[in-house]
């Protein structure tokens, strides 16, 4: 009985101490509108440090802007130190893109959530915008 209990405790300890999968796989983007939010889901991605966003994700967002169709894209980037920075791009029916950046987990950054509104996205090679408002903190 002690041997079984020891084995169970050792397994539980190892499971609790193991870190996240070092190379998380992105979810595939879908073109069908999300029933709950009325948005096209352009995907959720966590590219490895130094890797870019898949071309299909940028294309999905750009096409939604051109069509004036609501869409969303979620990307978690890693800082140099490996801290995750989630960024959510939400396309409105007016073609503007709201960008929410959450740097609260950045051990060396400002640790704030900010909002910007941008227009005219291009994929060159990363998703970029011709015009953006200044980032404003979200309380």
Show the helix and strand layout.
Layout: H1 2-17, E1 40-45, H2 55-67, E2 71-78, E3 84-91, E4 97-102, E5 113-123, E6 127-132, E7 136-137
Parallel strand pairs: 1-2
Antiparallel strand pairs: 2-3, 3-4, 4-5, 5-6, 5-7
Provide a descriptive summary of the structure in words:
Keywords: Signal. Residues 28-37 have a biased composition (Low complexity). InterPro entries: DUF4362. This is Lipoprotein. The protein is globular, with a radius of gyration of 19 Å. It has one domain. It has 2 helices and 7 strands, in the order αβαββββββ. Strands 1, 2, 3, 4, 5, 6 and 7 form a 7-stranded mixed β-sheet that branches. Residues 1-36 have low confidence and may be disordered. It is α+β, with helices and mostly antiparallel strands and 139 residues long.
């Amino acid at each position: 009985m002690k041997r079984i209990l020891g084995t169970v405790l050792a397994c539980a300890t190892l499971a609790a101490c193991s870190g996240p999968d070092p190379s998380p796989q992105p979810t595939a983007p879908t073109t069908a509108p999300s029933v709950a939010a009325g948005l096209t889901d352009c995907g959720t991605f966590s590219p490895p440090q130094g890797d870019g966003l898949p071309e299909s994700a940028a294309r999905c967002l750009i096409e939604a802007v051109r069509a004036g169709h609501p869409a969303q894209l979620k990307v978690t980037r890693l800082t140099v130190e490996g801290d995750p920075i989630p960024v959510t791009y939400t396309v409105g029916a007016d073609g503007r893109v709201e960008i929410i950046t959450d740097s609260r987990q950045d051990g060396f950054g400002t640790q704030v959530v900010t909002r910007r509104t941008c227009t005219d996205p291009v994929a060159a090679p990363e998703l970029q915008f011709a015009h953006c408002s200044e980032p404003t903190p979200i309380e």
